[in-house]
């Protein structure tokens, strides 16, 4: 029987690095993208056009896009929080020689399920952010860019506690209505488990107004070590796209205490021998995880990566 395809959005160069306090040169970020490409990843979130006052680490994203090797057919989404970010990106794209592979063909807009998180992350309420993002999505689509949407704090909010799944559904629907092709559900804090994630997906996907699972992605931070289990719960609910970061890098500057995304290595290992087929070569990804962990001078946060290093 042929295996069912799972899409993986490698978010290491963005989510993975945005929280690092030491300055990482654009050359290193570009090399991370290049190494991930060689290891078989085909969707690589490569940076953010956000305010450098808010997230200094992402300030050099334009340079990263220029330096990294880009390939036809791959996708290199970048985060855009407002019209200013989109204009900076469009300006960059307009100056690019037409003969080159475009810097990117996709942006990701992001909001949250709670006002408290939205204010901490983007200085506006959820309703205000949806209004802002709707104009961004419209303009981006008109310019030929694909738009992905993120909803943060889908399980728990670091500022306002337990989150109502119905709210997640409403915000996701609003992002779809403005033209997002897919909604990535972010367990930003990483407190979700198969029961709470199952309840969430039951609400979001269920009922006559349910959002099809094919339009959803899972973005699970691994703070409590539940991310792989949560991915398998989401697979049971029909979700086939997951975000992960090589070496388990990452965290959100506005989610205190949360650790990195689920490690790409852990996801690939968990899917081995299953009915699902995912892009990327596990051993090669693990080598990238070892390299970037050493480069950042931090322990490899992927259990699978560490186990493979010890072999
Ligand atoms: P603000 O301070 O309200 O914005 O921030 P502002 O319009 O007043 O601008 C302030 C300054 O920033 C101005 O500069 C602007 O020009 C500049 P000044 O005049 O003072 O010199 N500015 C920009 N510069 C470059 N690019 C821009 C931009 N916009 C304004 N796009 C704002 C509002 C949304 C800009 C800010 O809050 C922001 O950038 N937030 C982004 C925070 C962020 O990147 N968080 C991490 C990503 S989300 C995440 O990690 C979660 C996710 O992984 C899913 C999950 O895990 O849940 C996706
Ligand atoms: Mg995240």
UniProtKB/TrEMBL annotation:
Q: To which protein family does this belong?
A: Belongs to the HMG-CoA lyase family.
- InterPro entries noted in UniProt: Aldolase_TIM (IPR013785), HMGL (IPR043594), PYR_CT (IPR000891)
NCBIfam families in the record, alphabetically?
PRK05692.1 (NF004283)
Q: For this protein, what is the EC number?
A: 4.1.3.4
Query: Pathway, according to UniProt?
Result: Metabolic intermediate metabolism; (S)-3-hydroxy-3-methylglutaryl-CoA degradation; acetoacetate from (S)-3-hydroxy-3-methylglutaryl-CoA: step 1/1
Q: Which GO terms describe its molecular function?
A: hydroxymethylglutaryl-CoA lyase activity; metal ion binding
Full protein name: hydroxymethylglutaryl-CoA lyase
Keywords tagged on the record: Lyase, Metal-binding
């Amino acid at each position: 029987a042929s295996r069912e395809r799972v899409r993986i959005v490698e978010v290491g160069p963005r989510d993975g690095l945005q929280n690092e306090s030491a300055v990482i040169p654009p050359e290193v970020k570009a090399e991370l993208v290049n190494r991930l490409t060689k290891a078989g990843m085909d969707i690589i979130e490569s940076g953010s056009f956000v305010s450098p006052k808010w997230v200094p680490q992402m300030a050099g994203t334009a340079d990263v896009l220029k330096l990294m090797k880009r390939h036809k057919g791959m996708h290199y989404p970048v985060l855009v929080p407002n019209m200013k970010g989109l204009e900076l990106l469009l300006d960059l794209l307009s100056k690019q020689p037409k003969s080159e592979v475009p810097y990117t063909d996709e942006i990701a807009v992001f909001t949250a399920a709670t006002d408290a998180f939205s204010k901490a992350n983007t200085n506006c309420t959820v309703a205000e952010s949806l209004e802002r993002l709707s104009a961004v999505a419209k303009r981006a689509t008109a310019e030929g860019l694909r738009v992905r949407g993120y909803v943060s704090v889908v399980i728990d909010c670091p500022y306002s506690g337990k989150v109502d799944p119905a709210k997640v559904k409403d915000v996701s629907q609003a992002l779809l209505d403005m033209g997002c092709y897919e909604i990535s559900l972010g367990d930003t804090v990483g407190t979700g488990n198969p029961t709470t994630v199952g309840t969430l997906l039951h609400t979001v996907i269920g009922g006559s107004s349910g959002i099809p699972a094919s339009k959803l992605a899972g973005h699970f931070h691994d703070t409590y070590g539940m991310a792989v289990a949560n991915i398998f719960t989401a697979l049971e609910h029909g979700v086939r796209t997951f975000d992960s970061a090589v070496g388990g890098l990452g965290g959100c500057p506005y989610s205190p205490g949360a650790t990195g995304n689920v490690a790409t290595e852990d996801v690939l290992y968990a899917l081995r021998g299953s009915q699902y087929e995912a892009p990327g070569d596990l051993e090669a990804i693990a080598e990238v995880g070892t390299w970037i962990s050493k480069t950042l001078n931090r322990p490899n946060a992927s259990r699978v990566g560490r186990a493979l290093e010890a072999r």
